[in-house]
Design a protein that fits this description.
This protein is 73% helix and 0% strand. By secondary structure, the protein is mostly helical. The relative contact order is 0.24.
Length: 145
């Protein structure tokens, strides 16, 4: 395994962490609706909040898919040119998308709900529970695994 391949693996792991935004600890809750229902229960969301959170997380998922495509193109272009892709730039883009999502959620969730959301998100990253995130479909986590 070349250093470039290892670096790509690290970048893809960082990308996967962003994709797997806040997954439910119960692996039996599958599909986007089930995950959103689990999130709604854990955060005690109102119907209005549930709808807004779903919209935000679906938007985040779409943006992450677009970002993943851009990163793949950058990786292929760098490989063809015999250079290395800018992993710092890629990581920064994922982190910015994550922060933008939290900012949007902060306008919908109460302070305590947002704290719970961040805790769930942290647990997900450190323990790898679930697949696809709360707002994404089954494919949201599949390509990052």
């Amino acid at each position: 395994m070349t250093p470039l391949t290892k670096a790509l693996g690290v970048a893809l792991l960082a990308l996967a962490a962003g994709v797997v935004l806040a997954q439910a600890p119960a692996a039996s809750t599958t599909g986007p609706t089930g995950r959103l229902d689990k999130l709604a229960t854990l955060l005690d969301l109102t119907d209005s909040q549930k709808t807004q959170v779903q919209t935000i997380l679906e938007g985040q998922r779409a943006q992450m898919q677009q970002l993943r495509s851009q990163m793949k193109a950058q990786w292929q272009a760098a490989k063809a040119a015999g250079t290395k892709p800018d992993f710092a730039q890629m990581r920064s883009a994922v982190q910015q998308l994550h922060q933008d999502t939290l900012t949007k959620l902060s306008t919908v969730l109460s302070a305590s709900q947002l704290t719970k959301f961040k805790t769930l998100e942290s647990m997900t990253r450190h323990h790898g529970w679930g697949h696809g995130g709360f707002g994404g479909g089954p494919s949201a986590g599949a390509s990052g695994n």
